[in-house]
Amino acid sequence: MADEFFYGVTLTGENSSVTWDVVSDEDYVRGQKLVIKQILLGAEAKENEFNVVEVHTVKDSVQIPIAVLKAGETRAVNPDVEFYESKVTFKLIKGSGPVYIHGQTIRDDVEPVDMEEEDEDDDVADLGDDDEEENPKKRAKIEQNADGKNAKNKKK
Amino acid sequence: MDSESFYGVTLSEKEPIAQFDVPEIPEEYIIHSHKLIIKQIFLGPEAKQGEFNVVQAETKVSDKETVKIPIAVLKVGETRSLNPNVEFPNGSVTFKLVQGTGPVYVCGKAELNLGEFEDGQIYEEYSEDEGSDLDFEDDVPPQTNGKSNKKK
Question: Is A50 on the interface with B (CB under 8 A)?
């Protein structure tokens, strides 16, 4: 099962920043990721002022704007970008905001498909095979005993 | 078993709140996961000029914390609609028109992933197989007893 949650943070003013990081938890075998779906300018933002959101990822050492917003021109953008297994920082490098960042966090602890299920079936089949191997022997013994018994009965 | 449904609500000054909850399901099913995806939020033609319409969402962001944050800011003459494409997995969400008179339409879809109580049936099949094996073994002991009697 993957742990998924809505992600929503606010950059409140010039130079404010927010960080997301992976949780150091061994249970998340398939990794953790942050997906950014929308970056939105608040109603209080100043007219004609550019608001620029820059992202910095530690793993890839990338620092680049991912949103340029301006009241009266671009109220929101839909990046649909993903950040996998890396610490990420969002910073309002220009403008006074507020800017809202929306997305979701996905922490996947689904274990890789293993061959155990097939092995279990084989075990059941093996048990069946064992029984079949034993039964002929048992049958042979039983038949021998039965013959012996019948022979004695006949003698009497 | 997967189920999808269209989600559409209207927010206005008179009815500013819409609540989405984990749906109730019949007893034979269990919920594996469910998710609400908001695809589009937009202003009706009657919306007033010069007024900001702000939709806020309130939902859980972890097992312990909830957040209230605007997810749409609309204004006649500037932004008629937005396509947030945001997802709300596994929890309740409350949408509220915290600014403006609307009407604001919120559309998307609700996905539901259910499991039937098939798991119980699968285990019953295995136990039936084991039962047949046991029956076979039960047939053997009486004959073995016959054998031991014969020795005496």
Answer: no
Q: Is the same domain home to A119 and A62?
A: no
Task: Show the domains of chain B with their CATH numbers.
Answer: 10-28+35-109 (2.60.120.340)
CB distance from B31 to chain A under 8 Å? no
Phi-psi region of A90 (alpha: psi -120 to 50; beta: other; left: phi over 0): beta
Among B57, B73, B150, the residue with its CB nearest the CB of A149 is B150
Residues A79, A7, single domain; the answer is: yes
Over 60: is that where the pLDDT of A111 sits? yes
User: What residue in A sits closest to B152 (Cα-Cα)?
Assistant: A149
Do A87 and A121 lie in one domain? The reply is: no
Write out pLDDT tens, residues A73-104: 999 999 999 999 999 999 999 999 999 999 99
What is the number of domains present in chain A? 2
User: Quick check: B41 pLDDT over 60?
Assistant: yes
User: Which residue pairs, CB below 8 angstroms and at least 24 apart, start in A12-15?
Assistant: A12/A97, A12/A98, A13/A92, A13/A96, A13/A97, A13/A98, A14/A92, A14/A94, A14/A95, A14/A96, A14/A97, A15/A91, A15/A92, A15/A93
Domain of residue A85, CATH code: 2.60.120.340
B147 touches A at CB < 8 Å: yes
- The alpha-carbon gap from A4 to the nearest alpha carbon of chain B, in Å, equals 6
Domain enclosing residue A68, as ranges:
2-108
Please tell me whether the overall predicted TM-score, pTM, comes out greater than 0.80 for this model: no
* pLDDT for the residue numbered B38: 98
Q: How far A145 CA sits from the closest chain B CA (Å)?
A: 6
Quick check: A10 and B69 CB within 8 A?
yes
Q: Are residues A32 and A15 in the same domain?
A: yes
